[in-house]
Target: 5-bromo-4-chloroindolyl phosphate hydrolysis protein
Amino acid sequence: MTKYIKWLGLIFGVVIINVLLFSPGFIGLGFSGGAFATALSVTLLFGSVMALFYGSYTLLFKQPVVLPVKQIETHEDYVEALSFYRRIKVLEEDITLGLSQLSRMKKKKETLLNVLNQRFDPGELSYKKFASVTLEVEKLLYLNIRSVLNRLHVFDEAEYAALMKSKSSKIPPKLFQEKTKVYNDYLSYVKDSLHTNEEILLKLDQLLLEISRLDSFEAGDIEQMPCMQDIDQLIKHTKLYRQ
Model:
C-alpha cells in the first residue's frame, strides 16, 4: 500500500510541476516561442516523462535489496532490514511481531527517559542507573533482532517449501528428518529470540510501573528493586546464551 501511495504522490508531483512550468498563469513555457524556450520546454517535458517512468519502475517493479546486517546501525535500518523478510510466508507472523517489538521498544524507551527527566536531574546517580539499564535492555533487544536477521539471511524459503511439499516421498527418510530438523532449528531460533524480546518489553513495563510508584528512595536501593534484579538476570542469561 505504501509504494502505491508513493507512486500516486510521484504522479501528482510531476503533474503539478508541469502545470507550473507550462501554464500561462505561471512560468508559461511553450513551443511557440523562440528556439531556446522551445528547446527548454522539450527538455523539461522529456525529463518529466523519464522521471515518471523511472520512478514508477523503482516503486512498483524494482526488487528491494536486503540491507547487510553489518551495515545496520539505526532503528530505521532494523525496520527496513526486517521488513524485507515479510515475503517469507512461514515466518510472516514472526516478522510482523519483530517489527512490532521494534516499534514498542522505541516508544517505551522514550517514555522511560521522559519519566526519568521529570523525576530526576540528569546528573543524579539514580537517573544514570535507570537510564543505563534502559539503554542496555534496548541494546539487548536489537542484538536479538540482529541475530534473527542473520538466520533469515541464510534461510532458503524455496528449498523449505519444496521439502515440506515432498513429505519425504522423494528422499530417504533419514535425510528428510535431518533436513527437516535443520529448518526447524532456524524457525525455533527466530521464535525463541522474539519470545526473549517480549520478556524484555514486559520488564521495561514493570520497571516503568515501579518507578512511578516510588516516592523517595536512595540510589543504593535501585539494585534491590525486584524489576531491576529481573532485568539484570535476563541480560546475563541472554548474553550467556548468545556466547
Notes: The chain has two domains: 1-61, 75-241. The chain has a mean pLDDT of 81. The two ends are 40 Å apart (CA to CA). The longest helix spans residues 173-213.
